[in-house]
Amino acid sequence: MIVNNPCLEFWFLLHFKKTSKYYDTCAEAKTELKKYLKNYEKTRKFFTKQGDDIYLKLKPRLKIAVENSIALGNYDKKNPKKAMCEMELFFQSSELKKHFE
């Protein structure tokens, strides 16, 4: 399981901005993300559009996002309103790491 607090949009935002701001809702994170991905939509079409999917849009900034994610540290159960993201764990897995270095 990979945790993003508060949501997946926060991971996308970390591709553009180093932030530890906690967003109370996904809508708040989405509003901030749209400053960078103006046409962002949480739709199948946006995520899978042939030749222009979310992965292709963000891939050039993946290293930045991983660094920003690591800088946030781990989940703190004593502080559930701490912004954090564990998506770097996915991209650092031995199966995928060789594709992104």
Describe the structure.
- This protein is mainly alpha-helical and 101 residues long.
- It has one domain.
- The chain has a two-stranded antiparallel sheet with strand order 1-2.
- The radius of gyration is 13 Å and the shape is globular.
Instruction: Provide the β-strand percentage band.
Output: under 5%
- Order of H and E elements: EHHHHHEHH
- Based on secondary structure, the structural category is mainly alpha
Sequence stretches where pLDDT stays below 50 over 5 or more residues:
none
Main beta sheet strand tally, sense and closure: 2 strands, antiparallel
Number of separate strands: 2
Helix content: 40-55%
Mean pLDDT: 90
Quaternary structure state of the chains depicted: single chain
Gyration radius (Cα, Å) is 13 Å
Strand order of the largest sheet: 1-2
Number of helices: 7
As for the number of domains, it is 1
Please give the alpha-carbon distance between the first and last residues: 23 Å
Shape: globular
List key phrases describing it.
101 residues; mainly alpha; two-stranded antiparallel ribbon; 7 helices; 2 strands
